[in-house]
C-alpha cells in the first residue's frame, strides 16, 4: 500500500483512540444485606437503607429471631439465598458474630462490621467481651433475664448505654420495643470465620458503651480490615451516623468489584 494511504489511516486510528472514553471502572456490587444486633430489630437500619437505596443499591435486611445463634445464622443465610449475585454482608454488634459465621455463603463477596463482634473459630463474643469489658459489663443490673432465659437491656438504662446520641424519644421507644435475645446466643462458639477468606471493613464507635471500642479495634486489626473511628458515636452509630456508615458499605461494594479482588 502506498505510504500516503497508510498515514491517513494511522491518523484516523489515533484520533479515534483519543476520542474513545476511558475504560470505565468496575460497577460496585449492588446487593447489600444488613444484619442487626441483639435487643433491636432491622428497623434501625432505615436511615442507612434510604441512603444506599437512593444510590442504586438493592438492600435487604435480616430479621433474626434471636432465639439461638444457629437460628440467627440460618435467618441470614436464608436472605443471602434470595440475592441474585455477589453481596456485601453487613453486621452490627452481635450481628457481627452472625455475619462471621454466615459469611462463608458463596454469594458473600465482602463483610462490613459496624461496632461489631468478629470472633474466630472456637471463640464466642461473651468470653472475648470479658477480656476487654465495656461500660455495659461494668454496670450492675444493666442486663435483665426472663425466667426462661431471654435477655434484654434494662429499659431505664437503654438510652444511656445503647443510644445516648439518638433523640431521647427514639431511644426510649427502642428501649420498649426490644427483641429479647436468648442468653446462649452470646456464648455459642463459632464454627466458621468468614473474615479469614473474605475482604472486610469496619467501623469503631468511639463512645460505644455496649462493646469496648478497643475490642472492636482488636477484631478489625486481626482481620486485617481497614476501619474508621467515628469519634463520639454510640453503639447506635448506624442510626446516628448513617451517612458515614453507608459510605463505608459503599466503599466495600466498590473495592470488591475491582479487578483482582
UniProtKB/TrEMBL annotation:
| Domain AB hydrolase-1 per the UniProt entry, residue ranges | 32-247
Q: Does the keyword Signal apply?
A: yes
Signal peptide position in this chain? 1-19
What the entry lists under InterPro entries is as follows: AB_hydrolase_1, AB_hydrolase_fold, Sec-Metab_Biosynth_Hydrolase
Query: Which UniProt keywords are given for this protein, alphabetically ordered?
Result: Hydrolase, Signal
Q: Which residues form a coiled coil?
A: none
Write out the GO MF terms. hydrolase activity
One Pfam family per UniProt: Abhydrolase_6
Indicate whether Transit peptide appears among the record's keywords. no
The protein here is known as Alpha/beta hydrolase
Q: Which organism is it from?
A: Xanthobacter dioxanivorans
Amino acid at each position: 500500500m502506498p505510504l500516503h494511504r497508510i498515514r491517513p489511516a494511522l491518523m484516523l486510528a489515533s484520533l479515534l483512540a483519543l476520542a474513545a472514553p476511558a475504560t470505565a471502572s468496575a460497577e460496585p456490587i449492588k446487593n447489600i444485606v444488613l444484619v442487626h444486633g441483639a435487643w433491636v430489630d432491622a428497623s434501625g437500619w432505615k436511615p442507612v437503607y434510604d441512603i444506599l437505596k437512593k444510590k442504586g443499591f438493592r438492600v435487604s435486611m435480616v430479621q433474626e429471631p434471636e432465639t439461638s445463634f444457629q437460628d440467627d445464622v440460618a435467618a441470614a443465610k436464608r436472605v443471602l439465598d434470595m440475592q441474585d449475585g455477589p453481596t456485601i454482608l453487613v453486621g452490627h454488634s452481635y450481628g457481627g458474630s452472625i455475619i462471621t459465621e454466615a459469611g462463608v455463603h458463596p454469594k458473600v463477596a465482602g463483610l462490613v462490621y459496624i461496632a461489631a463482634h468478629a470472633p474466630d473459630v472456637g471463640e464466642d463474643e461473651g468470653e472475648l467481651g470479658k477480656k476487654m469489658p465495656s461500660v455495659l459489663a461494668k454496670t450492675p443490673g444493666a442486663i435483665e433475664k426472663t425466667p426462661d432465659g431471654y435477655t434484654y437491656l434494662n429499659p431505664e438504662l437503654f438510652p444511656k448505654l445503647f443510644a445516648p446520641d439518638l433523640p431521647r424519644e427514639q431511644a426510649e421507644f427502642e428501649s420498649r420495643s426490644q427483641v429479647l435475645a436468648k442468653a446462649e446466643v452470646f456464648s455459642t462458639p463459632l464454627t466458621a470465620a468468614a473474615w479469614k477468606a473474605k475482604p472486610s471493613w469496619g467501623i469503631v464507635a468511639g463512645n460505644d458503651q455496649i462493646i469496648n471500642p478497643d475490642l472492636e479495634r482488636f477484631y478489625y486489626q486481626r482481620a486485617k480490615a481497614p476501619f474508621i473511628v467515628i469519634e463520639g458515636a454510640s453503639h447506635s452509630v448506624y442510626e446516628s451516623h448513617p451517612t458515614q456508615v453507608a459510605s463505608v458499605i459503599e466503599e466495600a461494594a466498590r473495592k470488591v468489584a475491582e479487578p483482582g479482588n
